[in-house]
Structures are given as structure tokens and as C-alpha cells.
Backbone:
């Protein structure tokens, strides 16, 4: 099989979908690996390192897409890439279709197959290809929150940990999954006052057991959310419903009750956001202010720490890429339930039920 790895063209995206050891593994298995020139530079990986490990460097995305049977990316295909996709081609990447109807309908017209990192299920229902980026985003959310709480960034002028005689910041984390857990661990290290809200009581019990004393848990209902928003200096939106649009937990009306200069970081922006006033931003222009509240809604947070994120991502994606390359789509999906759950679009049909329901599109089960 011919595997292509293009350079990411989404704004401020510095990750790459394959590291040199991946090129070596794929070529050792008898496959051809094409790397677009400069694809790894944002993660500090030179073209020569790919060549030394068996890959072929190609000059343009057009050539790469034209030759590849399987294209491996990091972010969803951008409009300029839609025209390069062809029927029967497999694209293995993050899609987050439920947050973008235009992308969904545009991809349907290509005839290509979408194998989505974010819906690939592990043996126990976990999301192994989403987990490392959720870990990065959760930890980054506190790092970015600390920055944008500073007064020159229009924040409240709050130091997360406070100082003796001055209270620390109050941090509210909506969702106790991978993002929420990692955010809480970093926030706790800053000695902030942290509250995690979730609707899964068993998860809250687990978090209560493993977190330090400055992290507390609350059941997530509208009354508790409303009360915590009034106290919050920093809010982390960390809600996930796999494949579906994130529920809105912070309505526009709630902003007026928040402290001026408080910061909202919506990590769920890739799935539409859990804050009503969310709109995707970029690392070059990451924030905007609504009703005195600073919003940080960067849709590819881990892209800013490209080297860390690339290696964390490729650690988990390579085994599945090898399965797709070695066995082909149908055989790989027949033998691996995780890959089966990752097929979101096939032959012009939506094969992920949550995506279909989000946009009222007919759903067709994928049967390899």
C-alpha cells in the first residue's frame, strides 16, 4: 500500500502524523511511505530523518494525494484538500464532524473513507487515539488559563496559587474525563482551589480518591454549575460525548453573573463547544471578550506544543495505521472493533450514528 503523510495546513498547526520510526515500520512491512517536504519541521523532524528511515519525500500535496491509498493526517482536511481526495481513498485523522456540517457534507462528496481518531474505541470503551491529545489539552488549559488571567491579557489579574495572605484562584472544571483530570492535576500543583463537576458519580468518587485536598468534586447540574460560575476565576470546558456535538453547559445569560475578567477555556470547541458563546479561535488570535469574560477557544490546542503532541499521538496511531496498511480497510475493520468504530464516512454515506443524527443525514451502518 502507498501511505501519504501531508504537511498540515491548518493555521498554527505544527504536528505531523508520522514520526521516522513509523516510516521505518511501514516500509519494513513492504509499504511505500510518502512524506510531503517539510511536513515534520513544526515538530523538529527533518526530511532527511524520514529518508534515512525509508520514506520518499514528495514536493507537493497534489502529488502525495494522487499517489496515496491511505493518507494519514492530524487535523481534519481543509477545504483546499477536499478536491485532492478521491473515491476509495482512506483518510485517517481527527475529523470532529459533529462540529462542522460543511466539512461533513464536503467530505461525503469526495467518495473517500473517513477513519476518525476521535471515535476509535479501545477494548474497554475508552478512546485511545483521543486520550493523549486530551491529556495535552487538559494540561495546557491551566497553562493558558494562568496566562490569560493576567491583567495585560484582559484577565482579572489573578495568580493561580495566590500568596500567603491572599487566596488562590478558584478554578471550575466542567467534566471529569481525561481533559478534566489532567487539568485538575496541573491546577492542584499550582495550589489553586479546584472544583470538578461531572454527572458520573462513580467517576467523581474515583477523582475524589486520587486528587489532593485542594481539589473537590460536585455533581454537575444546572444549579451547581450556575453557583460555581459565579465564584470562578477560570473555567475549563472539558465535556465530551464521543462523535456527537458537545452539550452547552454555560449559556450566554450566565456570563453576566461571572466576575469581570474571568477566563473561559473551552477545550470542547472541536466538538462545537460547551459554552454558548464559543467560536473557534487560533493560536495567533486566541481570545475574545464577551460580557467582560475572556474566552479562549483554540480549536487545535495541542498544535502549539507540536513536538510533544506529535510523539504522543504517533505512539498510539501507528499500530492502527499498520493494521490498515497491512490488511486493507475491510479486513482490518472486520478483525478490529476499534477501527470499525472509527469509520465515520464510507462511499458517500455517513456511518457514524451520532454524526448522522447531528445533521439529519441518513445513517448507514458500515459492514466490512
Residues:
Amino acid at each position: 500500500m502507498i501511505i501519504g503523510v501531508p504537511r498540515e495546513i491548518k493555521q498554527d498547526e505544527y504536528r505531523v502524523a508520522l514520526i521516522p520510526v513509523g516510516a521505518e515500520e511501514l516500509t519494513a512491512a513492504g509499504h511505500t511511505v510518502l512524506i510531503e517536504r517539510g511536513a515534520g519541521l513544526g515538530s523538529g523532524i527533518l526530511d532527511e530523518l524520514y529518508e534515512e528511515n525509508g520514506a520518499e519525500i514528495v514536493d507537493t500535496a497534489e502529488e502525495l494525494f494522487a499517489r496515496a491509498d491511505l493518507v494519514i493526517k492530524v487535523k481534519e482536511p481543509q477545504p483546499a484538500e477536499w478536491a485532492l481526495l478521491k473515491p476509495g481513498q482512506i483518510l485517517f485523522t481527527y475529523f470532529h464532524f459533529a462540529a462542522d456540517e460543511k466539512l461533513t457534507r464536503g467530505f461525503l462528496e469526495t467518495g473517500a473513507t473517513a477513519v476518525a481518531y476521535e471515535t476509535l474505541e479501545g477494548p474497554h470503551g475508552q478512546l485511545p487515539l483521543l486520550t493523549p491529545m486530551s491529556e495535552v489539552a487538559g494540561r495546557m488549559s491551566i497553562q493558558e488559563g494562568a496566562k490569560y488571567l493576567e491583567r495585560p491579557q484582559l484577565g482579572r489579574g489573578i495568580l493561580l496559587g495566590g500568596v500567603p495572605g491572599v487566596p488562590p484562584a478558584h478554578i471550575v472544571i466542567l467534566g471529569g474525563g481525561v481533559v478534566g483530570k489532567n487539568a485538575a492535576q496541573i491546577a492542584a500543583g499550582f495550589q489553586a482551589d479546584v472544583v470538578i463537576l461531572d454527572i458520573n458519580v462513580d467517576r467523581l468518587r474515583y477523582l475524589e480518591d486520587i486528587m489532593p485536598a485542594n481539589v473537590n468534586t460536585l455533581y454537575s447540574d444546572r444549579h451547581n454549575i450556575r453557583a460555581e460560575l459565579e465564584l470562578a476565576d477560570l473555567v475549563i470546558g472539558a465535556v465530551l460525548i464521543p462523535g456527537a456535538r458537545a452539550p452547552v453547559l454555560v449559556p450566554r445569560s450566565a456570563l453576566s453573573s461571572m466576575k469581570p475578567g474571568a477566563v473561559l477555556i473551552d477545550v470542547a470547541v472541536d466538538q462545537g463547544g460547551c459554552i454558548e458563546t464559543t467560536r473557534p479561535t487560533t493560536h495567533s488570535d486566541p481570545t475574545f471578550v464577551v460580557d467582560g469574560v475572556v474566552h479562549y477557544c483554540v480549536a487545535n490546542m495541542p498544535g502549539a506544543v507540536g513536538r510533544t503532541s506529535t510523539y504522543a499521538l504517533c505512539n498510539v496511531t501507528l499500530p492502527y495505521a499498520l493494521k490498515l496498511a497491512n490488511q486493507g480497510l475491510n479486513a482490518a475493520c472486520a478483525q478490529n472493533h476499534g477501527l470499525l468504530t472509527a469509520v465515520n464516512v464510507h462511499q458517500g454515506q455517513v456511518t457514524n450514528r451520532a454524526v448522522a443524527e447531528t445533521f439529519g443525514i441518513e445513517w448507514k451502518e458500515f459492514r466490512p
The two ends are 19 Å apart (CA to CA). The first strand starts at residue 2 and ends at 5. The mean pLDDT is 97.
